[in-house]
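lol ok so funny story. i was supposed to be doing the assay writeup but got distracted and ended up predicting the structure for this chain instead. priorities right. anyway since i did it might as well share w the group, maybe its usefull for someone
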Amino acid sequence: MSAADLLQIVAIERQATLFPWSGKQFEQSLEQHRCLVLAADNDTNLILGYAIVSTLLDQAEVLNICINPEYQGRGFGSQLLTGLLKQLPDAIEVVYLEVRVSNFRAIHLYQNHGFIEVGQRRDYYPTEFGREDAILMNLVRE
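and the output, tada:
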């Protein structure tokens, strides 16, 4: 991910979520975290999705992962998550993430990649009608 990608990324984020990250949050992530994009296999510079992960010592946390809604359901989320996990330093032993309890497709994706539920965070995410719980998941790397 580069600064040149941010216009597309912010547009995807706004299409994909009701409570999107701001452009400033993405800018800060470029400075502070590992940021990846999944681009189309052509010369269009089309971004299909992105992921942001923080690392500290032997742990990582997926902060944001998203596929453009127009391209969801085609395996790109799995491809992006696989790439993200492969690019983590060898020292990373555990990868954490939170996911909305209502996001069944994402939960299934994470389970297919070996993540397991290790807890819940009550009222973690905002919704149109209040708050929603998050499932805390982790993947122990070997």
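DSSP finds four helices and six strands in the chain. The radius of gyration is 15 Å.
back to the writeup now i swear
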